[in-house]
Amino acid sequence: MKLNQFARLTTTYSEQIKALQRIKLLDEGYEALSVQALAQQIFARFFPEAHSKTAQNEQMQKIQATASLNLADYLAGISTSFDQRTFYNIALQLLGFKVTTDFQFNHPRRFMAKVGIPYVDQPVLTQELFLEAVYLLLTTRSQNGLLYLDCLANRGFFAHWQKATAPEFLIFNGKTQPVFDTQNFIREVVYVESSLDTDLDGHLDLLETTIFRPKETEKGLRVPVLYTASPYYKGTNDVDADLHNVDVPIQAKAAIQPNLADLKTGTNQSVPAAREPLGETTEPELEAADDSNYLLNDYFLARGFATVYAGGIGTRGSDGMRTCGSPEETASTTAIIEWLAGNRRAYTNKTDRIEIKAWWCNQKVAMTGKSYLGTLATAAATTGVEGLKTVIAEAAISSWYDYYRENGLVVAPVDCQGEDADVLAKLCQTREMDAADHAKSGALFEEQLT
Known about the structure:
Layout: H1 13-22, H2 35-45, H3 53-60, H4 71-77, E1 82-83, H5 84-94, H6 108-115, E2 124-125, H7 127-138, H8 148-154, E3 171-172, E4 175-176, E5 186-193, E6 206-213, E7 223-229, E8 279-281, H9 295-301, E9 306-310, H10 327-340, E10 346-347, E11 354-356, E12 361-370, H11 372-383, E13 388-394, H12 400-404, E14 405-406, E15 409-410, H13 421-428, H14 435-449
Parallel strand pairs: 7-9, 7-12, 8-11, 12-13
Antiparallel strand pairs: 1-2, 3-4, 5-6, 5-10, 6-9, 14-15
């Protein structure tokens, strides 16, 4: 096993003290406390699920500090310093490592050096060194991979923040902390107006957009957004019958020169005018029935980031036609960012033209996504759209051609043999899931796909 430490900021001692006080692990006036009183106070707070001194003491009695003393008894006997070896006997147990199974008791540094766990390399921890060791422990990854502070958060360490009257972000070692109540989020749907009319109905395509944001935005907090452009968000169609048979012999073909004039690649239709709003509101009309479904986004929900999902043109709830890898697909992706940045209109429904703004957004957007989702993030990034600050694209492609073609042959992902761009478009043209919508758009989609 190797624990690779990463993403830890190196900070000064004074910055560490301020951070420990910011998360309320360390009180004002701590300097007047003895090492014993300070250690008893801090270790008790490492058990946020225990709501009385007796319960805290019982939890500390489960931690073995020395060969003969548990943590509670050891703390009762110290005075002006803390033995380093004992501290790390305790720390490894707090991190979820087991004595004998994972490390040899009274030899914690051997194990820590082997797996890459950092430690304060001094045999005796004075008050200052003890607090440095505590800060380092909070930013250390536990046996299950989470930072120790994240482990504490999962056990209720930040519960009191959710009751604050003036909500704010909490930063520790450069990272936002999970101080927002994910059980009390606002879930809403709006319809962003694009600059496209891909279904040729004489109106700009409206794009259904699902939002999850902290309740604290209603108290004036402005938050950044994690936006995932997901053509799969509202489901997918069954396209097994459209997969091509790949179990055929490969034969050489004579080169041909196509007549490019025969290729119909679009229309010369003028783009319709934008809708004129008939009113404005800050209250959405439709509550999101779907859930957030990208785990990275879920991780940041509790940390104060809003999460936004949109399938784009041709997907269920939106207007338009799905065209994989096209400029129109990219434009429908960036339209959501433009609305979040205050540069595009959205409406509460598709009919009444009541405008709603992303007033709760601080106009800073990051895109997330894996595979097709990450591909759309990459496409959006190439446009330089205002408001997009970064993308976190996982296993994304950057060339649609190279994804489906190699050395003159059609290729496909391992689990999708017989697929091509037309099949992927059919998979994601989920307007057909609503029968009445499919009746309006199905024939035109097949014509455009051809």
